[in-house]
Automatic annotation (TrEMBL):
Domain of life: Bacteria
Organism listed in the record: Candidatus Yanofskybacteria bacterium RIFCSPLOWO2_02_FULL_47_9b
Lineage: Bacteria, Candidatus Yanofskyibacteriota
SUPFAM superfamilies documented for this protein: SIS domain
PROSITE patterns from the UniProt entry: SIS
Entry similarity comment: Belongs to the PGI/PMI family.
SIS domain boundaries: 22-153
The entry's keywords: Isomerase
A GO term, aspect molecular function: carbohydrate derivative binding
UniProt protein name: SIS domain-containing protein
One biological process term in Gene Ontology: carbohydrate derivative metabolic process
């Protein structure tokens, strides 16, 4: 399946009905640590944005962060491949410390680890997808482990519209040839990070994100530099006319996207935008050779 087909199929991932193996070992927890790297971090980020009322900590490193309430903290090791070294180390350390632990993966060492230790786990379908394109499966699985109502994904199964495809091409035309900066309100910072990483991996472009109003007090000062000519700005969210007018005065190419409660459309939009940028540049949207090369240096 090519990249475009993977993205057009993404809404169907939210129809997924996960099976929790060893579900009897799960219970409600006050604190949640979700470990994930790269594309496997995106679903935890989106879940945290959707449910700010939950105490969710995203951990992207080896080992564990400081855990202050062992009995009431659930650690979830989330790795699409099941073979991510950092996430495996999280699972091993959590088991060593006797912390409640669950696993989400499509297979690999983590599923073997979960089965051997009789841990609650979900085996998500379709092995060998790029992890960033399996965000729907991962989101649904994580929500199931936490006992969340599927209503949070209401409407997310809607097929990709022609309008969304055209919007992605329009955004790509603005972003091409420069360095994308993604700006969003603090409550959408996780979505801004999703845009940044998918542009990095799929379009192979440097991209960065920041939050308003914080960046009004620091990063915006750099717009007086001649280097600002290389910037292409994407503003996520409504009611930012002052910022949009400022960018216009500075002659910085920019665009603004506003979305409703269907966050899936914003996720699909960045995938399609990154695909359009990759096609413009003649890049393979699926492969990530620099990441592969760096891993071989370990």
């Amino acid at each position: 399946m090519n990249y475009r087909d993977l993205i057009l199929n993404l809404p169907n991932q939210f129809k997924y009905q996960p099976e929790i193996i060893n579900a009897d070992k799960l219970r409600p927890f006050k604190h949640i640590i979700i470990a994930g790297m790269g594309g496997s971090r995106l679903a935890p980020d989106i879940l945290k944005m959707l449910r700010p009322d939950l105490d969710i900590h995203i951990h992207s490193n080896f080992g564990l962060p400081v855990v202050r309430d062992d009995a009431n903290t659930l650690v979830i090791a989330n790795s699409y491949s099941g073979n991510t070294a950092e996430t495996i180390s999280v699972a091993q350390e959590a088991l060593k410390q006797g912390l409640p632990l669950a696993i989400v993966a499509s297979g690999g060492k983590l599923i073997e680890f979960a089965a051997a230790n009789h841990l609650p786990h979900i085996v998500i379908p379709e092995q060998n997808l790029p992890p960033r394109t399996a965000i729907g499966y991962s989101l649904v699985a994580l929500a199931a482990l936490l006992g969340l109502d599927r209503d949070i994904f209401a409407g997310w199964q809607t097929p990709v519209s022609d309008e969304l495809v055209q919007q992605s091409k329009d955004i790509a035309e603005i972003l091409q040839g420069g360095i994308p900066l993604i700006y969003c309100a603090d409550q959408y910072k996780e979505l801004g990070y999703v845009w940044k990483t998918i542009l990095n991996e799929t379009a192979k472009v440097p991209a960065f994100c920041n939050r308003y109003p914080e960046f009004f007090h620091n990063e915006i000062a750099s717009y007086d530099s001649t280097l600002a000519k290389q910037l292409r700005v994407l503003v996520i969210g409504a009611n930012q006319e002052r910022l949009l007018n400022f960018l216009k005065e500075k002659n910085i190419p920019h665009t603004n996207i506003v979305f409703d409660s269907n966050i899936a459309s914003a996720i699909i939009l960045v995938h399609l935008t990154a695909l359009a940028l990759a096609e413009i540049a003649g890049m393979d949207p699926l492969s990530t050779p620099a990441i592969d090369e760096f891993k071989k240096l370990a």
